[in-house]
Task: inverse folding
């Protein structure tokens, strides 16, 4: 079986120029350059930039838009994408003011140009809201583990990490305690690593003091491992947990929701196709408006586009109503977008070329803002530099 790298090289050598020529005369191939992603083959014609992407890139196809917006430097941008992986780029196109043309191909042949989606069509296709609430234990199970859940909720090193199928608590972005079950309760204590699984306790009666003490000790070991980063850093999740503890650092009020289930556009044979995603944080500001928060550590090529995906989802009418209900917001509350960029290891964030070039082409009706986060990995309130609305950061 050939590797992706081999298929990429073959596409660049044998197919890309054939596809580019079907778009018209005059496109000249750009030789490999530092900083130009090899996920696309690049061409130029007068003041146009063309990216041709092969099917071997699969779900990574949509990252080419992120690179192209930065490389185009205001020039008209032409993208030729594999048919089954073009939808995420087409979903974002109406919300960008850049001159973007999108074509699709299959097996080396340029197909009919797909129609450009309208903003409303993009929003309608964003996907529905979550109908289920975070997992709740059965009435008997609740009583059996009440002391444990109260201990975990009050623990200064733990933050909630509940999902639809379990109750959970994490430290530094790593789950160290989960509880699930109705009639028989399963409790996993400690970090559930591949080579060192968490300890499983199964009960069908109230926790004994001996088991409760054992679970506390196992969670304490997990907390120590999380602080020591023995199984990875998980720094972004850690920063999210700290920001949720101190919402006022982001000029937000309680309640601040974390990992709000949503949908993002995805590639595939049928359109629209969606993949499950999670909004990092969502809250309300001092004016009573909803704020969707997308977090990243340092510069990231997909930060702005991923935040855009979630903002479009959150402004679909039924989803906006659902979010307002969850946040106790007014029915007329607007929805804003906040990019919270932290530095690795709690340092000042490094912000690069992608963020600025992408922010410059966001549709003007999208209200956005940048927060630069540092010192988020200590016990105190994270340090936040909030830039004025619609003010792009200076690249570092």
Result:
């Amino acid at each position: 079986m050939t590797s992706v790298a081999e298929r990429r090289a073959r596409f660049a050598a044998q197919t890309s120029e054939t596809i580019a020529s079907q778009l018209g005369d005059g496109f000249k191939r750009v030789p490999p350059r530092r900083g130009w992603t090899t996920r696309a083959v690049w061409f130029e014609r007068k003041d146009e930039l063309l990216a041709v992407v092969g099917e071997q890139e699969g779900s990574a196809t949509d990252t080419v838009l992120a690179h192209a917006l930065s490389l185009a430097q205001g020039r008209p941008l032409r993208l030729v994408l594999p048919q089954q992986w073009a939808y995420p780029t087409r979903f974002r196109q109406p919300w960008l003011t850049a001159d973007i043309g999108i074509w699709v191909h299959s097996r080396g042949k340029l197909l009919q140009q797909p129609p450009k989606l309208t903003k409303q069509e993009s929003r309608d296709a964003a996907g529905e809201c979550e109908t289920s609430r975070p997992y709740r234990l059965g009435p008997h199970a609740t009583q059996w583990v009440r002391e444990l859940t109260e201990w975990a909720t009050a623990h200064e090193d733990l933050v909630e990490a509940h999902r639809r199928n379990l109750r959970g608590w994490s430290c530094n972005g790593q789950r160290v305690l989960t509880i699930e079950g109705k009639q028989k309760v399963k409790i996993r204590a400690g970090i559930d690593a591949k080579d060192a699984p968490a300890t499983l306790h199964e009960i069908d009666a109230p926790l004994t003091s001996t088991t409760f003490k054992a679970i506390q000790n196992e969670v304490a070991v997990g907390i120590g491992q999380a602080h020591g980063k023995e199984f990875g850093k998980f720094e972004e999740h850690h920063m999210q947990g700290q920001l949720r503890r101190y919402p006022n650092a982001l000029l937000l009020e309680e309640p601040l929701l974390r990992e709000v289930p949503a949908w993002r556009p995805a590639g595939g044979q049928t359109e629209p196709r969606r993949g499950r995603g999670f909004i990092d944080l969502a809250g309300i500001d001092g004016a009573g408006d909803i704020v969707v928060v997308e977090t990243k550590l340092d510069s990231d090529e997909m930060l702005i586009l991923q935040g855009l995906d979630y903002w479009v989802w959150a402004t679909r009418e039924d989803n906006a109503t659902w979010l307002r209900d969850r946040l106790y917001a007014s029915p007329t509350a607007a929805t804003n977008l906040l990019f919270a960029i932290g530095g690795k290891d709690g340092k000042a964030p490094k912000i690069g070329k992608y963020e600025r070039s992408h922010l410059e082409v966001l549709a003007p009706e999208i209200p956005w803002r940048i927060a630069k986060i540092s010192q988020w990995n200590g016990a105190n309130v994270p340090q936040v530099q909030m830039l004025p609305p619609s003010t792009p950061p200076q690249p570092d």
